[in-house]
Amino acid sequence: MGRESPDEEQTHEEVRERDLVEAYLGEHALEQSLNDVINQVVADRPEDPFLVLSRLLYAKATSQKGIFYVQVQEILDARGQPTVLVQLHTGKGVFDATVSGCTGGLPDKLPVIEDQPMLPLTKQRHGGKGYRKRADKAQNALNDKLAGMEPTEQSVIDSILLALEPEVGRNICVATSVAVCKAGAKYAELPLHEYIAKLLEMPTENMCIPMPMFSIINGGKLASNKMFIQEVTIAPSSALTFADALQIGAEFTNLVKEQLDTRGLGFSNSGAFGGFTPQVQVLSEVFLFLRGAYDEIRSRYDGAAHGMTKGSVSPLRIEFGLDVSADEFLAPVVAAAPTPEGGDEADTRTTFSYNTDKWVQGSSGVAKSSEEMLDMIRGNVRELEITSVVDPFARGDVKTHTALYIAEHDQDTLGTVDTDGSEGGGRKVVGGDPNCKLQIVSRKLHELHGLENVLQERACNTIALQLEQHPSLTRALEAVLDARRLGVAIILSAQSGGITDGNFLASFAVGAGIGQVKFGGLASAECVERYNQLLLIADDELAPGFVNASYRR
After folding, report:
1. CA 98 to mean position of chain CA atoms
2. What confidence tier does 68 reach under pLDDT thresholds 50, 70, 90?
3. How far apart are CA 271 and CA 275, in angstroms?
4. Which parts of the sequence belong to the Enolase C-terminal TIM barrel domain (predicted)?
């Protein structure tokens, strides 16, 4: 066969090119897709057809993709401190999340800050707490690892984030994990709380609407008063619906404000977690206001349900709790040596001293031993009828936690247990659990010693779960499963400036079947949003049931 002429070669090249073009058009269905969007534009006849055409093409381009871009940028949290916002761009929309910069963040500080490593902190952006450089680095790392992945691969993505934590910081990892979960729910076409139940492999009938624990009084580091107790909370345990519990909480909060306003300027100022900050130091004085509000609200509800289910207020029961956060006023170790990383030496003390006058201006400090703290906590529990205490002693003080547990559960001298909450000679059962007479809540104890070890020591019977203290959502879900396996009740606890998405926190509580939430007080818009999101979930006709008095789960 002779050599092809130039014209024949050109013809064959044109045929090959045409075949390639047709194959490409067929592979991506370009002709059909273009016809579809053009026909839609023609049918709608918009004023700006090119703008609509570009939007339709973008939607078409991203409709089949998973994660195709991760954006990380510096913003301010609810306390006005720098943190990061993670935005997950997917084929079904953009999903974002943010977590406080105090949660294991890696801010831009010396020696990496604005290319001037020797600048003092006072000369740096946000005092060295900014995230502009860190956000850029994290964005590159996240896009490199997550682009092309499906949001429904929560555990796989969380494993990647766990490996990235030393490089990008816990707050960015947690925010990314939360954003992935939101996107996963969209892809699974499930409400967020049902999707979280699915991640837990938990039957939907185990979901519940939790009992709220409202922060009424703030002290300690949350306030500008003299109280060493960080929070006084209430739980409207007689409420039969979440809506009733929220109404009782709101009306009680307003009555407390009225009580405090009578004392003068500054008494009804609000603290960092949505409670009031009365200028008092003694807890018993605080309870004069709270008991006054309790008596008033019972009087108002007497014979009238105020639009609530009658059983929610007849009789009305409100349970009081204390968040002591004893680590905040633990007397420091004398002459602690710095570590090579610049932190303090691990606290290995075996005896503990508590400075309950830490927030009293001009005080030289009043040191209390563990035994004195135990006596004081027990006295408050009995005299003020407290049903819940959070971190009553330092995280290292396991022995005193155990002493409190034994004193309240094994050496009860008040007679038989009163299971129905009526007046009588016995100790009331807490949260519908016949084995619980006082919720001893660990927020930090089990993080240091491990939950199984803490339970073997009988140092607590409840844990406060903060999502941002876990490097990923998967780890937080594992903590829920561990607590369930060990028979420990869970309180989902928020913190000021933590995960700011009220809908996610509410959905997590419902989807994980958690019986109690501690979302702050109603004098804070951030905290109110969390309770409102729970209300919206509870009002849905397909919503799970409210836990009411049986909230320990």
Report:
1. 11
2. very high
3. 5
4. 206-548
Residue 211, by phi and psi: left (phi above 0), alpha (psi -120 to 50) or beta?
A: beta
What is the arrangement of strands in the sheet containing 82-90, beginning at the earlier edge strand? 67-76, 82-90, 93-99
Q: How far, in Å, CA of 29 to CA of 400, rounded?
A: 70
Dihedral (CA of 190, 194, 200, 205) sign: negative
pLDDT digits (tens, 9 = 90+) for 200-258: 999 999 999 999 999 999 999 998 899 999 999 999 999 999 999 999 999 999 999 99
Q: Hey, what domains does the chain have and what are their CATH numbers?
A: 67-189 (3.30.390.10), 204-539 (3.20.20.120)
Q: Where are the alpha helices (DSSP H) in 63-131?
A: none
Handedness of CA 359, 361, 363, 364 (dihedral sign): positive
Start-to-end CA distance of the chain, whole Å, equals 86
Which residues contact residue 105 at a Cβ distance below 8 angstroms, ignoring those fewer than 6 apart? 83, 84, 131, 134, 169, 170, 171, 172
DSSP string, 117-166: TT--GGGSGGGGT--HHHHHHHHHHHHHHHTT--TT-HHHHHHHHHHHHH
Q: What is the largest CA-CA distance in the chain?
A: 114
What pLDDT, in 10s, does the model give residues 307-333? 899 899 989 999 999 999 999 999 887
> CA-to-CA distance for 360 and 171, rounded, in angstroms?
33
Positive or negative CA dihedral for 309, 314, 315, 321? positive
CA distance 17 to 19: 5
Query: Which pair of structure tokens corresponds to residue 138?
Result: 């994290």
Give Cβ neighbours of residue 454 (< 8 Å, ≥ 6 apart): 398, 401, 442, 445, 446, 460
What DSSP string describes 174-231? HHHHHHHHHHHHHHHTS-HHHHHHHHTT--GGG--BPEEEEEEEE-GGGSSSS----E
As a whole number of angstroms, the distance between CA 503 and CA 509 comes to: 10
Average pLDDT for the chain: 87
Q: Which amino acid is at 526?
A: E
Contact 67, 90 (CB under 8 A): yes
CA of 53: how far to CAs of 29, 39, 274, 469, in Å? 17, 10, 48, 45
Helix, strand, or coil (residue 297): helix
Beta-bridge partner residues of 417: none
Is 72:83 a contact under the CB 8 Å cutoff?
A: no
Given a contact cutoff of 8 angstroms between Cβ atoms, the answer to whether 219 and 227 are in contact is yes
Beta bridge partners of 98: 85
Could you tell me if 192 and 185 are in contact, meaning their C-beta atoms sit under 8 angstroms apart?
Answer: yes
